[in-house]
Design a protein that fits this description.
Layout: H1 25-28, E1 38-42, E2 86-90, E3 97-100, H2 103-111, E4 145-148, E5 161-166, E6 175-180, E7 186-187, H3 190-199, H4 201-205, E8 219-220
Antiparallel strand pairs: 1-2, 1-4, 2-3, 4-8, 5-6, 6-7
This protein binds a DNA duplex through residues 46, 72, 74-76, 78-79, 165, 167-168, 171-173, 176, 186, 188-192, 215-217, 219, 228-230, 232, 234-235.
Organism: Aegilops tauschii subsp. strangulata (Goatgrass)
Main location: nucleus
Domain MBD: 146-220
Length: 252
Amino acid sequence: MVHPRKRSRKRLITSDSDDDDDYTDKDYSIEEDTSKQLVLYDPQTTRRQQREFQLDEPIYDSTPLQQIPPKTKYGGHSRVLPSIGHYTVQCAQCFKWRVVPTKEKYEELRETISEELFVCARAREWNRVLSCDDPEDMSQDGSRVWAIDKPNIAQTPVGWNREVRIRGEGCSKFADVYYTSPAGTTLRSMVEIERYLAENPFYVRQGVYLGQFSFATPKPLQEDYVRKRKYSATTRELPDILEPVEVPSAAR
DNA sequence: AAGCTACGTCGATT
DNA sequence: AATCGACGTAGCTT
């Protein structure tokens, strides 16, 4: 589905200037700049609607794709898997998608993906002998929910966990990001992180600081995955797709 | 009853 | 106008 519509306009290696603010839709869109794409995808499609997703073939045999199971200290694991099932990165040379074995490695790659483009040979970093001649690990067919991540997000502090939870299709937002501290506290905004660190200077002494956190959410590959917002206050016309609200059937 | 998760909301921002 | 950021909460889980 990826149109080879690339324009040679790639300005890879965004200047050091500013990591974040540099990215616009252009950097995000896979058609444009394919040199630094990181993607995570949800293998399950948020439980709600469990379409008939033929569980696809294993990515590539013996990869320890072990996802850190939700460490709910409350035992129960209502959710079998965290929202994200696999992490992939696209080779800047052959454009094939490569599965990254662990979230840690994925975050490591992501942090500097703009400066250090990923190429198949780098799979050695996780002891995998790979070249651009090898068939791709997976393709963006429509069988999964793909989330295009934002480049250059700081690595999660050791001992902490950053989790992206993709919402169900049709929701008003695509996903949410949560951080869990080593102590097990879940935090869901920079405001909460800030407060938490203030209340627990222990971490700050350990070297943890705000710059290591980012609640930037990935965006869905599927364009219409997220429901559009209701209607703006200024707009007079309502969305014709208003829920089947009971019609004041005057004719009755 | 209490804890969580997933989702809606809405002001702020781009 | 679209997206982001932060947070309130319904309702499910423990």
